[in-house]
Amino acid sequence: MILLSVKRTILFLIIFFILTSMGSCSKRTEERQNLETLLAKAAANESDEKWEMILCASIEVGERLGMDLNALVHLSEVIPEVYRSHYYNGAAHGIPWPFQDLQGCYRAIDQSIPSQYRKGMYFGPIQWMVEELEGDPEKILPMLKDVPERAQFAIVNGIRIGLLLLFQKKPEDAIPYALSYPKRFHDEIFEELGWWVGQNDGDKVEKFQSIVEKIPKANWPALYHGYIRGLRLGTSISVYEEIIARFPSEFQKVCYESLFDRVVVWFGPDKNNIMEAMNTIRRKDMLLNLPKTLKNHSDMPKLPQ
Hints:
With 305 residues, this protein is mainly α. The protein has helices spanning 2-44, 50-65, 69-75, 84-94, 102-112, 115-118, 124-132, 137-143, 155-166, 175-179, 186-201, 205-212, 220-230, 237-244, 252-267, 271-278, 292-295.
């Protein structure tokens, strides 16, 4: 009788485990389908900001999948290949990385993510660490020794993005924290600060100019560059040129370089579309400062002079 009772108990546990597993599998399948729908909707968007729609959807995908990077790769098939770098970049923003094991995070990326997209995710664990540790450099800087050499370049990106996410409602509050980091990080952090101000208060140029005075003058060019990069005022180049014209002449060059970057995002990847847009720029003299992103296209049509 005892043996029979034990067998029944074991059988019950096996059945219970199978039924529970089936339920979990069903929930996972439903979750994946929901995420596929989310991504497909973003990929179907045909506005000028399609890339940003995909990036935002991918952040949510990262939040919901967590460290299931194999599932992340599988879902990438929903996204057109030309936008997959935005997909993986967005996912890196959203994943709750176990930053206490930084080396493990990077091993996971290298083992699961296609090689051409890995570098675009390397900032993620550091960004998450900065947010979780509330930007405290005394806690964060010692932990950076665990970042493998291949990912060292991503440290500053993780720091700058993490800091500004902490202070996104009032970006200028990030300034004291930024100044407490080594000077070699300052340009990138203040470029990100400019981007946030452009995003949130793009039509309030006076507010931006008041923030300029609060940071070291050596970092002003980076702040101006980020501000133009962050503006969301449509794709009419003349609107941006009007704003740039209000800035001191010594910072207009860097503003145009940032505008060129925006043009590549708006009208790429077709090079003829990019050049057609650039032909509308009034300040033709600024085309002499064409950034490398366009100079490196050997088949680019001749620049307007």
